[in-house]
């Protein structure tokens, strides 16, 4: 039905002081109500996002901080040992052990401090990129992963826009870019060439992957707060979140925050319709049962984990940079949970260069959409 939400959206904006009755009547008279109202709703969404950024959590210590700190400490200790072995200081330390420990501790503290600084989110935006906001009952919010800052959202999510009658938004966040990675590599070589080990300890923590992983947790918190602000663009709609790779980590963080806030304030809770994870780059700390009870309207399996056992990025690289985690990432294994539906796409993702060694889902999103149709109820276009 064309414009089925138009009048109700206008009423909601008027009630929230974002639109006057006279303005609404003028929009209807000039025939541009749909466009004008969408502009107002996006402006409201931007204000809510800015407010959530301004009140984001601070000073929390995450597991990724500890991993980075250990890495920085190991580098600091190794550098100190090499220096003491090749060029001893004029005043030797009381003992080699205490000297190495002191150096490692200093490097670790620098790494922890750097982690907390780089976690702060400076840029975050929800952009509408396809679908009719005024008529679509279902809204999809998509979150891309590492090195996709500013990327075209249609590259990953076009299949869902083309096949489903939905309004789609993309979360633009500081996920890093190829240029940023190239700069990091260049600076690392420069520090190594100059023998600046102290700089490298902090540089280790500030590498683009660790920065993006740190921010993913914070972005999830902020997005949960945006949802709970009940923006008009989402009012009365069925909201599904979809994330690829580190975007899955953003969603995992969002679920934790939304669950806690919904439990603490049940009268203003925000419920999700579905969550879909593709090649999710995080290790689940639980089976999502308690979280699902707080963020979904019923006990159906509304978390859909699309994974591949052939994802060598998650099987090897993710495992290595997170200091050999004992459990695998969600994106390369089924999640054992009564609230999670696991969808294995291993047969469609050979571990080769064209699929980024099994981690890029861009070429099989049509297949994934077909498989998801068995578990969700998004209407066809």
TrEMBL record:
Subcellular localization: Membrane
Membrane topology of the entry: Multi-pass membrane protein
Coiled coil: none
Subcellular location, principal: membrane
Superkingdom to which the source organism belongs: Eukaryota
Keyword Transmembrane helix set for record: yes
Keywords, alphabetical: Membrane, Transmembrane, Transmembrane helix
Classification via Gene3D superfamilies: alpha/beta hydrolase
Gene Ontology cellular component terms for the protein in this record: membrane
Family: Belongs to the TMCO4 family.
Protein name stated in the entry: Uncharacterized protein
